[in-house]
Amino acid sequence: MRAVRRFTVRASLPEPLAGLGALATNLRWTWHPPTRDLFASMDAELFNKIRDPLRMLTALPPERLEELAKDEDFLRRTREAAAGLERYLTEPRWYQRRTDEGLPQAVAYFSMEFGVTEALPNYSGGLGVLAGDHLKAASDLGVPMVGVGLLYRSGYFRQGLSLDGWQVEHYPVIDPNAFPLELVTEGGRPVLVEVAMPGGRDLRAQMWRARVGRIPLLLLDTDIEANDEDLRSVTDRLYGGDADHRIRQEILAGIGGFRAVRKFCELTGHPQPKVFHTNEGHAGFLGLERAREIIQSDGLAFDEALPAVRAGTVFTTHTPVSAGIDRFPVDLVQRYFSDGRLVPDVDVRRVLQLGAEDNPGLFNMAHMGLRLAQRANGVSKLHGRVTRRMFSRLWPGFDDAEVPIASITNGVHGPTWVARELSALLGGNHEEFGHEGRTPDSSLRDGVTDEQLWALRRELREKLVGEVRRRVRAAWMQRGASALELGWTDRVFDPDVLTVGFARRVPTYKRLTLMLRDPDRLRALLLDEKRPIQIVIGGKSHPADENGKQLIQQIVRFVDDPAVRHRIVFLPDYDMSMARYLYRGCDVWLNNPVRTLEACGTSGMKSALNGGLNLSIKDGWWDECYDGSNGWAIPTADGVTDPLRRDDLEAAALYDLLGQQIAPLYYDTGEDGVPTGWLAMVWHTLETLGPRVQASRMVREYVDSGYLPASRMVAAATDNGHQGALSLADYRTKLEVAWPRVRIFDAELQYDHTERLVVGTEVTIRARIDLAGLEPSEVDIQAVVGQVGDGDELADSVLVPMVPDGIGAFAATLRLPRAGSVGYTVRVLPKHPLLASPAELARVVLA
Prior knowledge:
Phosphorylase is an important allosteric enzyme in carbohydrate metabolism. Enzymes from different sources differ in their regulatory mechanisms and in their natural substrates. However, all known phosphorylases share catalytic and structural properties. By secondary structure, the protein is an alpha/beta fold.
């Protein structure tokens, strides 16, 4: 029989154990080992099985709880842990110690998924885990953030394999009451947010709160009786459904999420955010709701409210290809916005302009995100360059380098991912490792020998081997094998063999099967008698991605071969729990995407923090962090247009690195059995990459280059009755009229013709310019001098301001900066104190 309804009954704790409730519901326990140790001491076997303090309290027999309530030692440790959590939540931290004027009192961070812990399965992959690490690092630093997303009643999916190796998806039913979540209520009733739907209907969502250290994470849930049946399913699955389903989710995430933040802050006294950070474009509709709020509360027009909206928005894109951007049919967007109920006083025509792209039939969420944000960034230096090129058409007349999209390289939350054994060996406790940027450095190495580090690396590898054997056996049982035929799983993997890890989502560009380009060479590497390697693989393909599923099937069929299955495995249902074993136990982390298609890729960072060495294409973060001594860069077949030929060449390079460099170095041990050359690279990785890959570094960069300047710009735009925003709106209106008539005439280079032109020669560039009624103070006039190639395109340019030099004339004097073929031009740009970049308005007049 099946239940018609399900619900969760939480444990009733004896009064002396009341402090355990706060410890179990605040997700700080996910990166605080002493708290986990406290719960493990209640029943070690049970805790090792479920790894979730809240479920632990529910699963323990009442008599055990009564016994613990009389255990003075346990009560003392509970009081100490509760007091420690309270100090963590209230003490001043890095952010509170800052004295910068204008630091925002709160920042709202929007993401479609949050990977905080496997105990709250609300994520699919790297984007969600990055969002979870962002919140954790913000908590550690004291950044006053509010996370906003959706609660998916079936989460992403659990992965299994059929007998022939095909991915099988299973969607478990989630009861929010069974998770570390609290329903946000007022007067005992759930707080609801509403967004209008077509046909006069309303979509309602209740609000669940997760406590991520100091950070409240608000998750909206539409599975309530107040909704029509089709609307109850809006938050059913992550990244599921058709375009209509997706736009409902994104409307709820953006518009409903903004309203949820406002209500939550009103109820709790949390400061109202003035800075809003969107992690990808999914929640971009929130900018429309912010404009609606300003229009209705302050009586501004849309164009007058827009500067204030843009000033307070930070937009992060993780997409390196235009095909990865969310697009909706224009008629679908019109269906949701045309009746004026969703965002009153915002004309649907203005909405459509924000998402306009080359294809007039499509609405582009990334374009809207960029047009509604004054600050935007990619997630690695290389990705920043790729993104500026990808979106350059939004800023015509500007070089790619001038497109106003910066880069902040992703980071990972050290205390979550680093093995506590490693941080203990290096002289600090696990909480301090990575906290506020503190990482292993040369001073922490003092007193730690190569032998100790090598022994620890083997210990972590041995734990991985045990987990691999357990999961391989379970996977075969799930595929229909009998326990009697699985004795071989006890011999899978060897703790003394070089171990390579590859685990991530499985879109085609990540090339899961690159290692299979030459199966015979791979087998030779796996089965080498003197220097074998073993490979552990994990990853999920999106349920609708048939090509990705085929890649998984190819891998599974290869690893099923009895000749190699003890050396290479595919572990189904890759999640955060499995990932920790892999990051900590693998010696080498493999990453081989098609170059420039990996925006950042953080899995290799987590391996590096545990002493793993990266073997990767120079893409994403590895492009800027590889230094020749912290791992290996797989050569890329640049210029080869045939993708099969490219894959063959890069796979051959991969085999060569594994067989000729990596394995020989790993097995080159002295009489003590320690590979000193290998460990030299491990130490170098810990010392140099440690500080660079931390999420604490990432969040500090967001504060300094995103949140703080955004907060100051919001104040400039909104103070004194939105005087700044009104000024910028008036200026833009003036530009609309004048800009098409701005002209540059007679740009010429003047110098003393009795002298030869050499580097350092003083020259003057003069031009007559008709500003069409604009004042010189309202524009930025520049002379641009740089090297020129065959197409007369300027490169390595120097920008020199031009000043008035008579009526309608402007001049700039400079010394020639370089030798060779040099050219110049003159340009006019808008200028206003509320512009963050000269390119912001996408206007430029060139000579």
